[in-house]
Design brief:
By secondary structure, this protein is an alpha+beta fold. Among the domains are: 252-484, Elastase, domain 1 (Roll); 587-673, Sandwich (Immunoglobulin-like), CATH 2.60.40.2550. The strands form six sheets. Strands 1, 2, 3, 4, 5, 6, 7, 8, 9, 10, 11, 12 and 13 form a 13-stranded mixed beta sheet that branches. It has a five-stranded mixed beta sheet with strand order 14-21-22-20-18, with helices on one face. Strands 17-16-15-19 form a four-stranded mixed beta sheet.
């Protein structure tokens, strides 16, 4: 058992009446703590005036490290934020993310050295060293005895017994001491995280560390269609899944080939479900479905000297859930199968995850990777023991796709929806916790990501009903009704999380129609990176607006975004514009190229062109925002274009960000070192 101190900011809901309205496991106990907040004109606050969000701050700080700049602001605003002391002795810096919208600096609150569950402060410092946006779930005035009377082992045993015992492989096993806020007052508690094969789930429990009472038990898995009973997921001993076997230490990365559905057979053929030849038919192949496949390159798959496997730097196939079909390693790098072959879903899932993660990190320059492991995104294309569901687990970082009715892993909408939960999680909680699904935010993120991709294929027009459909092969058919991105009404109507999440996907889809695919996607993901594990839809909308302003979006773009968010019922304000102060970044001031090759080993190159003479610093950062190398520091002349080299010697494999800072601009791109 791994005993470590953590804080998971997922349970403090900030909106009255936002409890999850869906079926839940009968093993769950209690409810999450709910705080009522209200808009204040330039932020949000709870009833006693404690701020929960501050907007349009435009507070200039002295240029320093991101943490130092954030602490300077928090010290100045300690009284406003109801912090215990301007010295900030009870705040622990846990992570800084540096992205295109600036720095997001995160702190957890502690009491007597023990982390307060769900109590987080996120400070956005823009590229001009001005604090623009702050989210806080800080709990002032907590008084808790922090010496436990119950051992960690006893707490874990109590949770395991409540779950009816743990069977099969245990994919997550963590216990940590936390201060747990409740309606009746904060308690010292053991936070227990368990992810067994049976009972299936991403279980989080809180055990009173003074009395041993179970305070809360919840399955934190985010399900595509809500929790439903599924067949037992523990295999007999003779067929038990083998332990995870990582790829060789020095695998050969090569490009393979395959046939997949992109994005799905109905969209590809332009026909509705039920057209002859276009039904699931128990996973049967038809000439029509065979013709609807697309030939693709499966990039950077692994060759261990004998077999080729769908395990790469951005997507990583693993079989941990029944029916344990295996990941279908091949003697050649070709996965050209029809949909009735088990390998087809693995190739389809690998390609879509790999393709979208490259789009985010390479094309958009949004740095996002899983924090739970160091490989590509883990996925099981044949899971749930045949049940019709799919999920993302915040504890393990794993994506799992069921096979009931239409195989979920045959529909890009399902694959990318579940990936959307992970991307949301990794952006806003890069050191742990779960993605904020407060009143359906994470569901809306997944739906938007799925719709955004299927629209990008060019196979649909705005006049097609399917333009606004999510799950176009898996849903909108006799299997189930699917979801939409033209959801009526205004926030917060609809039950949470799945219905209410459609407000978010609708608003973002309309913004995409107004300002374009990549512009909306970039603002969306950089904005989510400024939020916390407790952020609501209105708070996320404000973060997206501020991210756009920080990145120099035009007034017309931001006005269009603000109009769509307001139309959906979100209380948002126009953000501080990028040109409100010195150091404004303009497209003509510089041209920073993408690094090539990407991924690279051992070297990658990029160029920088400056329109005006100025001093420039170029640094390389790792995925945690730590500077690992200075690539250049000096003067560049007007109109000069200079090439730079990133040398991966002595660096571990992973995601890096190279960032160029001049006197008139700041910009960066991500690059992957794959040894």
């Amino acid at each position: 058992m791994n005993l470590r101190l953590t804080a998971l900011a997922v349970a403090v809901l900030l909106l009255p009446g936002s409890a999850i309205a869906q079926q839940r496991s009968p093993l769950e106990i209690g409810e999450d703590y709910v705080e009522a907040v209200a808009a204040t004109g330039a932020g949000e606050a709870r009833a006693d005036g404690t701020p929960r969000a501050l907007y349009r701050l435009d507070y200039a700080v002295r240029s320093a490290s991101p943490e130092a700049m954030a602490r300077e602001f928090l010290s100045a605003y300690a009284s406003t934020l109801r912090l215990v002391s301007p010295a900030l002795d009870d705040l622990v810096h846990v992570h800084t993310r540096t992205g295109r919208a600036g720095h997001s600096v995160r702190f957890f609150q502690t009491v007597g050295g023990v982390t307060v569950y769900g109590s987080e402060i996120a400070v956005n410092v823009d590229p001009r060293d001005r604090v623009q946006l702050v989210f806080s779930t800080y709990q002032p005035g907590l008084m808790v005895e922090t010496t436990p009377a119950v051992t960690a082992e006893a707490a874990r045993t109590a949770v395991a017994e409540h779950l009816g015992g743990l069977s099969g492989t245990l994919h997550l096993d963590e216990t940590a001491l936390v201060v747990y806020p409740m309606e009746s007052g904060a308690r010292l508690a053991w936070q227990v995280r368990l992810a067994p094969d049976q009972p299936s789930g991403d279980w989080e429990a809180f055990v009173d560390a003074r009395t041993g009472a179970l305070l809360r038990v919840a399955d934190r898995t985010i399900y595509e269609r809500g929790w439903t009973p599924t067949p037992a997921t523990t295999a007999p001993a003779s067929t038990q899944a083998p332990s995870f076997v990582p790829a060789p230490a020095l695998p050969r990365r090569i490009d393979g080939t395959g046939m997949i559905f992109d994005p799905d057979p109905l969209t590809r053929a332009g026909v509705p479900y039920g057209t002859p030849g276009y039904v699931d038919g128990g996973d049967a192949n038809t000439p029509e479905l065979e013709a609807a496949r697309t030939a693709v390159t499966l990039r950077d798959i692994t060759f261990d000297g004998a077999q080729y496997q769908l395990q790469g730097p951005w997507a990583y196939a693993l079989d941990w859930d029944l029916p344990f079909s295996g990941i279908f390693p091949q003697p050649t790098p070709d996965w050209s199968f029809t949909r009735d072959h088990g390998a087809f879903e693995w190739a389809t899932t690998y390609w879509h995850i790999d393709n979208y993660m490259r789009y985010l990190n390479v094309t958009l320059g949004v740095s996002v990777i899983p924090h739970q492991y160091t490989t590509g995104v883990h996925f099981d294309a044949h899971g749930f023991n045949g049940a019709d569901n799919s999920s993302y687990s915040g504890g393990t970082g794993n994506l799992r796709f069921g096979e009931g009715c239409v195989d979920d892993a045959e529909d890009a909408d399902v694959i990318l929806h579940e990936l959307g939960h992970g991307v949301h999680h990794w952006l806003q909680n890069p050191r742990g916790g779960g993605p904020s699904n407060t009143d359906g935010l994470s569901e809306g993120v997944g739906d938007y990501l799925a719709a955004s991709y299927s629209r990008s294929t060019g196979l649909l027009t705005m006049s097609d009903p399917e333009w606004n459909w999510v799950f176009k092969w898996d849903g909108h058919n006799p299997c189930w009704s699917g979801r939409i991105t033209n959801f009526g009404g205004t926030y917060p109507s609809g039950s949470a999380p799945h219905q209410r999440g459609q407000h978010w996907s609708t608003a973002m889809s309309r913004i995409q129609e107004d300002i374009g695919l990549q512009r909306s996607d970039l603002a969306h993901f950089e904005g989510l990176a400024l939020t916390t594990g407790s952020s609501t839809q209105p708070q996320a909308a404000q973060a997206v607006l501020q991210a756009a302003a920080n990145m120099g979006y035009s007034e017309s773009e931001i006005t269009a975004m603000h109009a769509q968010f307001t139309a959906k019922g979100y209380n948002v304000v126009m953000p501080t514009a990028a040109d409100d102060g010195p150091g404004t970044e303009t497209p003509e001031a510089f041209v920073l190229s993408q690094a090539y090759p990407n991924p690279f080993n051992p070297q990658a190159t990029f160029t920088l062109r400056t329109a005006e003479a100025q001093r420039v610093t170029i640094a390389l950062y790792d995925a945690l925002g730590r500077e690992v190398r200075t690539l250049f520091e000096g003067a560049m002349s007007a109109g000069e274009t200079r090439a730079f080299t990133i040398d991966g010697s002595g660096l571990p494999s992973g995601l890096y960000l190279y960032r160029a800072t001049g006197e008139a601009f700041t910009a960066g791109h991500s690059v992957v070192l794959a040894k």
